[in-house]
Design a protein that fits this description.
Blueprint: H1 2-17, H2 33-67, H3 79-108, H4 123-151, H5 154-162, E1 171-174, E2 179-182, H6 183-186, H7 188-225, H8 229-257, H9 261-284, H10 294-324, H11 327-330, H12 333-353
Antiparallel strand pairs: 1-2
C-alpha cells in the first residue's frame, strides 16, 4: 500500500509541475514590482512557519492514539477513546462535505473552463460518488481476499490470536461422553472473528490514509504556491487544527490495526510529512504555478472530488457506523451521548474553520 501511495503522490506532483500558466482572462493583474517582492518575502516567512506548524500538529495528532496505548485513558478499549475517535470522525466528515467537495465544485464549474462539457454536467459530484463506490469495492474485495488468505492457514490464525503456538491450545475433557476436545479447535470461530476484525482495521487504516494524503498534497501545494499573506495566515491555523484531528482519527485506526512497529512508523511518518512536502513543492513551483489555469482547475477539481468521496465513505461507514453499532456502545447510553456530542463538536469545529480554508 505504501508503494501505491508514493505512486499517487509522484503522479500528482508531476502533473502540478507541468501545469501551464493561466490565460489572461482568468488571472488578475499584479501590483508594482517592489510591492510584489515585499509581499513575496513576507509570504515566504509564513509558508516556512506553516511547514513546521503543520508537521508538528500532524505528528502529535497521529502519535497520540498509538503512544497512548501505554496510558489507560487513551487505550482503544477505553470509553474515552470512542469519544475521541468520534470527534476525529466528525472532523474528517466535515472536511469531505464542507471543505473539499465545495472546492471541487468551484474548480470544475470555474468560468476559466469551457461550458462544454464542464458547465453541463456536475462532474464533482459524479467523481465523488464514483470514488465512494470505488472505495466500497476496494474495501470489500481486499477484506474478502485477506480473510480467505488468513483463514486458509490455521497456523496464522493461531499466531495472531495467541502469539504462541501453545498458549491458545487447551485440552478439555468431557467425562460424561468420554469425548476429547481441544480448546484451540473449539475456539476457532472466535479466533476467525478476531483475525477478521484485525484485517478489517488494517484495510480501513490504509484506505483512510490514501484519502487523507490526496487532499493533503493538494492543500499543501495550494498554500505553498499562494503569494497572498491574507490567504496564508488563516490557512496556517486551520491546517494545523485539521492535521491534528485528522491525525488522531487515522492514529486511532492504526492503533486498532496492530501493525508491526516498522509499518506503523512508516504510516505515521507518511501522514505527517505529506502536507509539509506539498507546501515545499508549492513554494518551489510558485513562479510557474497558476491556480486558475484550466489544467490546474481540472486536476485539483477531480482529485478533490475523489478525496471527498473517499473521506465521506470512510467517516460514515468505517469509522462512525463501526463504532456506533458496536455492542459496547449500544448497551451504554452515557457512552452514546458522549460520542454523539463529540461527533457534533468535531463536525461543527471543522465546518467553522472551513471558511478560512
Amino acid at each position: 500500500m505504501s508503494s501505491h501511495k508514493l505512486i499517487i503522490l509522484s503522479f500528482l506532483l508531476l502533473l502540478l509541475l507541468l501545469l501551464p500558466r493561466a490565460s489572461a482572462d482568468c488571472v488578475g493583474g499584479h501590483d508594482d514590482g517592489q510591492a510584489v517582492r515585499r509581499n513575496h518575502t513576507e509570504a515566504l516567512r509564513y509558508k516556512l512557519a506553516s511547514i513546521g506548524s503543520v508537521l508538528c500538529a500532524g505528528a502529535v495528532g497521529v502519535s497520540l492514539p498509538i503512544l497512548g496505548r501505554r496510558f489507560e485513558v487513551l487505550r482503544p478499549e477505553n470509553d474515552v477513546f470512542f469519544m475521541i475517535k468520534a470527534f476525529a470522525a466528525g472532523v474528517i466528515l466535515a472536511t469531505g462535505f464542507v471543505h473539499i467537495l465545495p472546492d471541487a465544485f468551484r474548480s470544475l464549474s470555474s468560468p476559466c473552463l469551457g461550458e462544454d462539457p464542464w458547465g453541463k454536467f456536475p462532474f464533482a459530484g459524479f467523481v465523488a460518488m464514483m470514488a465512494a463506490i470505488g472505495t466500497l469495492v476496494v474495501d470489500t474485495v481486499a477484506t474478502s481476499f485477506y480473510k480467505s488468505t488468513h483463514f486458509d492457514k490455521p497456523k496464522l490464525v493461531d499466531e495472531e490470536a495467541s502469539g504462541d503456538g501453545h498458549d491458545g491450545h487447551v485440552h478439555v475433557h468431557t467425562h460424561s461422553t468420554h469425548g476429547h476436545a481441544h480448546g484451540a479447535a473449539a475456539a476457532a470461530p472466535s479466533l476467525d472473528m478476531s483475525v477478521s476484525d484485525l484485517v478489517r482495521q488494517r484495510i480501513i487504516s490504509q484506505v483512510l490514509e490514501v484519502g487523507i494524503v490526496v487532499h493533503s498534497v493538494i492543500i499543501g501545494v495550494s498554500l505553498g504556491a499562494s503569494e497572498s499573506v491574507e490567504t496564508i495566515k488563516p490557512l496556517l491555523a486551520a491546517l494545523s487544527f485539521h492535521q491534528f484531528f485528522e491525525g488522531m482519527g487515522l492514529g486511532g485506526c492504526i492503533s486498532q490495526a496492530k501493525f508491526k512497529s516498522v509499518t506503523t512508523t512508516i504510516m505515521m511518518m507518511f501522514f505527517s510529512v505529506t502536507t509539509p512536502i506539498g507546501i515545499a513543492v508549492g513554494i518551489g513551483i510558485s513562479s510557474i504555478y497558476e491556480e486558475n489555469s484550466p489544467k490546474a482547475l481540472i486536476v485539483e477539481g477531480i482529485l478533490n472530488s475523489a478525496s471527498a468521496g473517499i473521506l465521506v465513505y470512510m467517516a460514515l461507514v468505517d469509522l462512525l457506523a463501526a463504532d456506533f453499532m458496536n455492542p459496547r456502545m449500544q448497551s451504554n447510553v452515557r457512552l452514546q451521548l458522549g460520542a454523539h456530542v463529540s461527533l457534533l463538536l468535531g463536525a461543527g469545529s471543522m465546518s467553522f474553520l472551513a471558511k478560512w480554508t
